[in-house]
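Predict the 3D structure for this chain.
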Amino acid sequence: MKIKGREDAFQDYTEQVLLCEDSQEGIFTGIYEAYEKKFHSGTVRIVVGEEREYRLFAVYHKVEPDTEKALKVARTVSNLTGPEPYRQMCTALSSTDPQKGQAVFGVIELLLKDRRSAQRIMDRLADGYVRKVFELHRNVQNEIHHLKEFLRFQELENKALFARIGPYNDVVMYLMPHFADRFPQENFMIYDEGRNLLGVHPASGEWYLARGVKLDRSMLNDSDEEKKYRELFRFFCHKIAIKERKNLNLQRNMLPLRFREFMVEFGENDKNAV
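Done. Predicted structure below.
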């Protein structure tokens, strides 16, 4: 019988914390390294970004994103589960929830233990990790759906279309293919102000993302046509409103206040209601 050395036995029960970059690539790399180092499954924690409160006796590992390792995890998961469960996990990783990495790791661990039911893994909502991933996916998907409706483009002097957003979750990558499919012949940009993330679509070209971009809004001047039609649209919105039937609570339910800052029909003094 083989007896483990003291260091190996101690490592099996010591909490191993993997500090990963807040990205799909970073988290998948952390999951790969957890299996590569053969950490005891009950003691691994996937932490996105920096640890908020360091724990005694825990061992911390800084994980550098590795495209090759991340792709291996992505291929393994997608081959086992099929496209839809894999898509739900990826969408969940776009959430701002700090527990997203641990939740996805828990789901992957579960499907690797029971590969025969891998394609139905997201139906197992009694499992806490599966339920967490499902909830994160639904939350992100709802915000994507809202932004497809509430996002507003403005025409710049160079005739390019520009839209600002301030989402809770990292959703630009899901908005770009939606609008690229609808405006294939247009030059347009979608800018996430909170993350300094810019999605760029050249006319008749492939869209791409640029991170760490700080745009000065004062340098992006609207075209004369944009100014004219913006005022006409605001006038139209006010003109069709019936004062006696104004219902601010209903308006806020249908159009949350946090979206109005980025919508052209709401001016500086008109963010609460039309």
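The radius of gyration is 23 Å.
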